[in-house]
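Blinded run. Sample ID left blank on purpose so nobody reads anything into the name before looking at the predicted structure. Input follows.
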Amino acid sequence: MTSFIIMITGGITLFLFGLNTLKSLLFTITNTRFKNILTSFVNSNFKAFLFGIVATAIMQSSSGLTAIAIVLLSSDLLNLKSTVLIILGSNVGTCITPFIFTFNIGDYSLVFIIIGYLLTALKKNILKTLGNIIISLGLIFLGLNFLESGLNGISEASLLNSIFSLNKSPIFSLTISTLLATILQSSSATIAITQSLYESNIITLTNSIFFMLGANIGTTISSYSYALNLKKEAKVAIKINIFLNILGSLVFIIFIKYFEILILKVETLLKASKELTVAYSHLLFNIISSLTIFIFFDFLFNLATKKIFRVDTDLKIC
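Blinded prediction complete.
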């Protein structure tokens, strides 16, 4: 049991270290470009929302884009409305990550690390940076390998089964995943854990969906830490994002039975693995909720700024 717990803890540690390193590298590379691109390509609701989707799909980190967006907002390079729309779009863009994790790339994680290390030995800085990026990817996939192996190893352990005997309570799954995503500060990590739990038959489909909802809520709550030392506008942007995500999840719970039926049909029709099923549920939820919020965005944004958070009139809202 102890060895499996060490594998799980080590897997999560490797995953988060690789993810944070990758995020830092991409931030260094793209920060200047983002400052130039954002100001010219987010001058409408649709452009800002679309930019959030595309940029997150490239960076593979909604947390990274959120951090960049609120820094730009605090630097007066973005207004409050565009910032919230970019963060909203990042919720859709980050859904690509779980699909990448289903292709067994982890089997080649050491190959990534070896190739990356060889590139860091070269003289050109661009190749050194590329090498570090590849090493980060290798650590991410290696961490997932350890995580999955550890979960598989204890899937039949009486202690774990006792803990998840509360599976019958979806609120328990929602609470646990929300806390986990808040602590880990990564929806990708929480979704990866959910995929491993469902693949190992530790949790049911219903609970995996609630785990996914909690991952979205938790990562938005954790993002508030990015704005602690920034201007008031940054804190307001995060508060509005938290409000929109919690609202979307609460409304979604009302139709959860129908969503589960839809996911089961997708799983059967596409003959998807359990890992892919979680990825599809994550993708569909974020597309449905984000597009719905986008359709009613002006109303919800005005509600949040004027009625709920009562934003100061001197802030750069639009």
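Unblinding after everyone has recorded impressions. The mean pLDDT is 81.
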